Inverse folding.
C-alpha cells in the first residue's frame, strides 16, 4: 500500500535551551603555579614539526625525530611529571594517605598549558578551622616540593598561594518537548571540572606581576587566616597536638622573607621559605643529605643562566635578556643565603 503523503509525521523531541547554573560562591585556597622557560621548548617543538617529510600515505616524519622527542619531553613531559608527582605522590601518598585525610580536606588539581592550579574549599567566610588549616598546609608543602623538583628538572616555577571567592562545578537541566509542547524527558548534567572566580585573578596577578623570579608568594589572606587561627584555637579542645604542629609548621614556612629580608612585601604578601630553617627542621637526616647535595647544583644553574643571559644581552642589547639575568641573580641570592643552614649535611646526613 503506498505511503500516505498527507499522513502526519511523528516529530522528534526538541531540546529546550539548557538551564545552566554554577556552584555557590565560597572561599577557596588556591595554589597557582606557572612553569618558566617553556617558550623555547614549545618554539623548538613547533619548528621541528614543520620541518620534515611524508613517510607513507598518512604519516609525517620530523626531519629531526630525536630533537622533536626531546622538545616534547622538556615541555609537555616535564609539566606532566611535576603535576602528577605533586598530585599523586606528594599529596596523595605522603600527605593524604599518611594522615588518613578525608576527601573534603584534600585539594583538587587542574592543569592547562604550563599552568597548574590546586584548590580547596575553606570554611564559611571569616571562619577558621581544621579544614582550612589542612588545605593551606597541603598547599604550602606542595609548593615547596614543586619548587625543589622544578629546579631538578631545569624548569623553575613561579607562583602564589591566596584565599578568595570562586564557584566550583556546573549543573544543567535539559528538558525535551514533543510537537505539541508537552515535556517528554528531563535530565541533569553535572561537571566537576569547572573552577572560576576572583581568587584566580588575584593568584595570577601575584604570580605574573609581582613574583618575577622563581619563588612562591603567600598572600596576606593566607597569613591572616593562620594568625587568626592561632589566636582562637587555644579555646578548642578538638584542636589537638597534630593540628597545633601543622599550624606551627605552616607559620614557619612564611616568616616574611623577601630576598632574605624578614619584612612582608608590598600588599602584605610573604615569600615561601622553601629552603629555610623550618624546612630543615622538619626533614629527616636522609632528606637533609639529599637536599644539601642539590642546593649547590641549583645555585650553579642560577648563576650559569644569569651569565648566559648577560652574554646574550652584551651581544644583542636585548632588554629581555637583561630581565632574565636579573631573575636568576635573585634566585641565586636566595639560595646562597640558605646554604649555611644545610652546611655539613652532605657528609654527615645531619646538621
Amino acid at each position: 500500500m503506498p505511503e500516505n503523503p498527507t499522513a502526519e509525521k511523528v516529530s522528534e523531541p526538541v531540546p529546550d535551551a539548557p538551564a545552566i547554573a554554577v556552584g555557590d560562591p565560597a572561599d577557596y585556597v588556591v595554589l597557582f603555579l606557572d612553569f618558566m622557560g617553556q617558550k623555547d621548548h614549545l618554539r623548538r617543538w613547533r619548528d621541528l614539526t614543520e620541518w620534515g617529510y611524508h613517510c607513507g600515505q598518512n604519516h609525517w616524519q620530523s626531519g629531526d625525530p630525536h630533537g622533536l622527542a626531546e622538545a616534547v619531553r622538556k615541555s609537555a613531559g616535564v609539566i606532566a611529571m611535576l603535576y602528577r608527582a605533586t598530585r599523586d605522590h606528594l599529596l596523595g601518598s605522603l600527605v593524604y594517605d599518611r594522615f588518613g585525610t578525608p576527601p573534603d580536606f584534600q585539594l583538587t588539581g587542574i592543569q592547562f598549558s604550563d599552568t597548574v592550579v590546586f584548590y580547596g574549599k575553606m570554611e564559611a567566610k571569616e571562619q577558621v578551622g581544621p579544614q582550612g588549616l589542612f588545605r593551606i598546609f597541603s598547599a604550602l608543602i606542595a609548593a615547596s616540593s614543586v619548587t625543589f623538583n622544578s629546579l631538578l628538572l631545569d624548569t623553575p616555577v613561579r607562583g602564589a598561594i591566596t584565599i578568595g571567592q570562586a564557584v566550583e562545578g556546573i549543573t544543567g537541566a535539559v528538558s525535551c518537548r514533543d510537537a505539541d509542547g508537552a515535556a517528554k524527558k528531563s535530565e541533569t548534567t553535572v561537571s566537576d571540572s569547572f573552577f572560576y572566580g576572583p581568587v584566580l585573578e588575584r593568584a595570577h596577578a601575584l604570580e605574573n606581576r609581582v613574583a618575577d623570579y622563581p619563588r612562591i608568594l603567600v598572600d596576606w589572606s593566607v597569613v591572616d587566616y593562620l594568625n587568626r587561627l592561632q589566636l582562637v584555637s587555644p579555646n578548642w579542645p578538638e584542636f589537638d597536638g597534630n593540628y597545633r604542629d601543622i599550624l606551627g609548621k605552616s607559620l614557619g614556612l612564611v616568616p616574611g622573607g623577601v630576598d632574605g629580608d624578614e619584612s612582608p612585601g608590598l600588599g602584605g604578601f610573604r615569600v615561601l621559605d622553601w629552603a629555610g630553617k623550618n624546612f630543615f627542621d622538619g626533614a629527616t637526616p636522609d632528606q637533609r643529605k639529599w637536599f644539601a647535595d642539590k642546593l649547590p647544583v641549583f645555585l650553579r644553574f642560577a648563576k650559569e643562566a644569569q651569565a648566559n643571559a648577560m652574554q646574550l644581552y652584551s651581544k644583542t642589547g636585548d632588554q629581555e635578556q637583561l630581565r632574565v639575568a636579573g631573575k636568576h641573580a635573585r634566585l641565586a641570592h636566595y639560595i646562597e643565603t640558605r646554604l649555611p643552614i644545610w652546611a655539613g649535611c652532605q657528609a654527615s646526613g645531619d646538621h
Summary: DSSP finds ten helices and eleven strands in the chain. Confidence is low (pLDDT under 50) at residues 257-263. The two ends are 97 Å apart (CA to CA). The CA atoms of residues 173 and 187 lie 6 Å apart.
